[in-house]
Amino acid sequence: MTDERERDTRARIRLDQPRPARRKILPDYDPEAFGRLSERIARFLGTGRFIVWMTVIIIAWVAWNVFAPPSLRFDTYPFIFLTLMLSLQASYAAPLILLAQNRQDDRDRVNLEQDRKQNERSIADTEYLSREVAALRIGLGEVATRDWIRSELQDLLKELEEQQRTAVFPVENERRRDVDDR
Question: What pLDDT, on a 0 to 100 scale, did the predictor assign at position 179?
Fold first, then answer.
């Protein structure tokens, strides 16, 4: 009975208090710093400079182990140690390149999402402006424009000129009547 109470009390205490820090087996590292390093390495591995240096090193390795005195050779003809070094380099290069590609994919995904949101905003703005232009056109249909006023004034001017002409020069039929009346 007392054992059960002690277990219950310990359980409550553990829930009330933060857990003690666990001992870490692996060393701490900054994943961003490691990612940046892997991108730099992947960028270097994808250059012509790396191919040239790798070719120079391999040629020097083979030349040393073929032409050097036998006592100074460290990797004889089948060049097993060279093969091991190249395999080791490839086994590290491949994951580093994949890590750099994954980071680039993540950046591309974020940029794509930002571009998509910007496009949505641009489309919404364009649709809004289209509606505003349509409303202005409808509103302008009811407003007198400069060209319309000019044409109306010209029509009125023509009418006034005709009225003045008819007042000064009566129509010939009307003249005859006046003459006939006298």
Answer: 54
pLDDT at 71 over 90: yes
Q: What are phi and psi of 23, to 5 degrees?
A: -75, 135
Cβ-based neighbours of 66, under 8 Å, separated by 6 or more: 77
Identify the band that residue 14 occupies on the pLDDT scale cut at 50, 70 and 90.
low
Q: How is residue 96 annotated by DSSP?
A: H
- What's the whole-number mean pLDDT along residues 90-101? 91
Which pLDDT value is given to residue 33?
87
Q: Which two tokens stand for residue 81?
A: 């140690």
DSSP SS3 for 30:
coil
Which stretches of 46-79 are DSSP H helices?
Answer: 48-67
Round to whole Å and give the CA distance between 69 and 50. 29
d(CA 64, CA 57) in angstroms, rounded, equals: 10
